[in-house]
User: Fold this.
Amino acid sequence: MTYQRNPFLIILSAPSGGGKSTILREVLNKSDKIEYSVSYTTRKPRGTEETGVHYNFVTEEEFKQRISNCDFLEYAQFSDNYYGTSISYIRSRLMEGKHVIMDIEVQGAAQISLTEIPYVKIFILPPSLEVLRERLVNRQTDTAEEIDKRLMIARYEITQIPCYDYLVINDDLDKAVDDVMAIISAEENRVDRYGQPQQEFLQDKDL
Ligand code: 5GP
Assistant:
């Protein structure tokens, strides 16, 4: 007998360079019940980033048009660029019974708490600010000025940890991925994620 369980949003936030993209990739590899929400952004592609895969890269004009069309479930400005989540994508995946995992910053995560859509919010924290700086420098994708700006934003973002449901410290990638998978599994088993399990159990016609 299979019970109806309602899918939910899995919101991952972390300071830029906190390792959440790697964790997210590993989580997606481990589960076929989870889809990734590809965000819209006005940021320029970095390195090998492709539109439709890493982000939907759009102009500021198109982004603002999408805001007026109410296309976004949430959106925010981060380090001079806009980032937003397509509401139609989220709705259609949830309707298919899939969880949707999102990599978004703290202002967007706060907007989602105000909607009716079920979610779990996980904050990924690197072991220290020093490690964060090293990771940003080593990935060689941002200028020194951009790195300083992202570290300044990180200090603010970390103050928002109390608004999250779970905190995962990313000092060991495998452990961090296991922790996120364990959180998802526990959340799937929450009583309020089920439809009417008691009725479904008692109405089993085979007995
Ligand atoms: P990056 O430029 O490093 O790819 O992303 C910068 C920040 O924007 C990260 O904290 C990332 O989580 C966040 N971000 C990416 N997509 C979205 C989105 O759709 N909405 C919001 N609010 N933040 C996003």
Observations:
- The pocket of guanosine-5'-monophosphate is lined by residues 16, 39, 43, 74-76, 78, 83-85, 103-105, 107-108 (CB under 6 Å).
- Helices lie at 20-30, 60-68, 87-95, 106-113, 129-138, 144-158, 173-188, 197-202.
- The radius of gyration is 18 Å.
- The beta strands are 9-13, 34-36, 40-41, 56-57, 72-78, 81-86, 99-103, 119-125, 166-169.
